[in-house]
Amino acid sequence: MLHLFFFVLLSIIVVGVNGIDEKHLDADENVKWFIKPQFDDVWYFSEGLARVRKKWKYGFTNKEGQIVIPPQFDSTWSFSEGLAAVKKYEKCEFIAHPTLFSRDLAK
C-alpha cells in the first residue's frame, strides 16, 4: 500500500512539473493574447511595464508586448517610483523608467 501511495505522489509531481508549456499552447481563434507568448516568463505590470525573461536574461515590456528595455540583465525588480533595481555581472544598480526622459523638459 505504501508503494502505491509513493507511486501516485510521484506521478502527481511529474505531471505538475511537466505541465502545459504556454509558449506552445494551441488555442482557437476566439482567444486573444494580452501579450503574445514570446517570453519565457512574464511578471505583473508596475508603472506600465512588466518584467520579462527570455533565454535567462531579464528586461521590460509594455502592455502592447513591445520590448521597452531589452533582456540584458541577470536579474531585475519591478519599477517603483520611476526606478527599478537591476543586476548585471554581479553589479547592482538602478535604472530609470523610460518615460522619465521622454518628456520635453524645455517647457
CATH architecture: Single Sheet
Averaged pLDDT: 74
CATH class reads Mainly Beta
Q: Could you tell me the number of beta strands?
A: 7
Question: Numbering strands along the chain, what is their spatial order in the largest sheet?
Answer: 1-2-3-4
Residue stretches low in confidence (pLDDT < 50, at least 5 long) are: 2-27
Question: How do the SSEs run, as a string of H and E?
Answer: HEEEEEEE
Strand content: 35-45%
Give the end-to-end Cα distance, rounded to a whole number of Å: 77 Å
Based on CA atoms alone, the radius of gyration comes out at 19 Å
Key features?
N-terminal domain of TfIIb, 107 residues, 7 strands, 4-stranded antiparallel sheet, globular, alpha+beta
What is the secondary structure topology, with strand pairs?
Layout: H1 2-17, E1 41-46, E2 49-54, E3 57-61, E4 67-73, E5 75-76, E6 83-88, E7 91-96
Q: What can you tell me about this protein's structure?
A:
There is one protein chain. The protein has 107 residues and is an alpha+beta fold. It has a single domain, classed as N-terminal domain of TfIIb (Single Sheet), CATH 2.20.25. It is 15% helix and 36% strand. The chain has a 4-stranded antiparallel beta sheet, with no helix packed on it. β2 and β3 form a beta hairpin. The longest helix is centred in the N-terminal third of the chain and has 16 residues, at 2-17. The protein starts with a helix and ends in an 11-residue tail after the last strand.
